[in-house]
Amino acid sequence: MKLIDPDPLLREAADALAPVRNDIVVVGASAIRVALHGREVPVSPTRDVDAGTSIEAAERVVAALEAAGLTRSTEPHEQSFTWVRGDDLKVQLIRPFHPFPTGAARGLPVNNTIPELRTHRVAVAFTERPDEPRLWCANAAALVALKAQAFGRTRHDGSPVDRDFSDVVLLLDHLLDEIAGQVETDLTMRRRVLDAARRFLSDDEAVSSAVRELLATDAFATAPQARRATERAATRCVRRLDA
Q1: Domain span holding position 44
Q2: Is there a single domain that holds both residue 158 and residue 111?
Q3: pLDDT, tens digit, for every residue of 65-75?
Q4: Which DSSP helix (H) or strand (E) runs through 134?
């Protein structure tokens, strides 16, 4: 179990989702912050908590959110999968593919890595109650795979999302030992992590995207430093996992 001192956003989300804690796994930016907790690593800020759930649990999860006072977002681009409470809490849900989704699951974005989180997740407790699991988060290897699937996405206004690239760089750079252990017996997840790392060794735009975000968050002082770190992290990963 991982022990963290959560930010207010994650604490509120854990409270809201407590009745369905075992039905969801936190992914995305909040999970990145959990994975890198305790390391002096600047991470891009976030205003929402992304969580994966199953088709079967979607109705329960939505009911729990609404019982906690969250309502559907009024923004057209996110209304089908986003619940908000004031300006402080936003929860976005995703689910695996199903040919005939019904109810709340119908409007949720699809990601087929979600079922694999059953074996690629870590229980998280908060410092004030170190023996009490508060939520599940995707582990570092799964986060690399999830982020790599999102490479090249854009926001609803058409602007590129650079942080997917920089998040993978930070995970590979700081958590390679953890990742190696997590994929040791899972060849599919190992391949996904390797594919993500190799992207930085073959695609200069991927490197440039990572560099832009790493500079924006002050992770590095100069573009050459950020570029060298990106290429180094990718090279180390490939050498370690492709041995």
Answers
A1: 1-138
A2: no
A3: 999 999 999 99
A4: strand 129-138
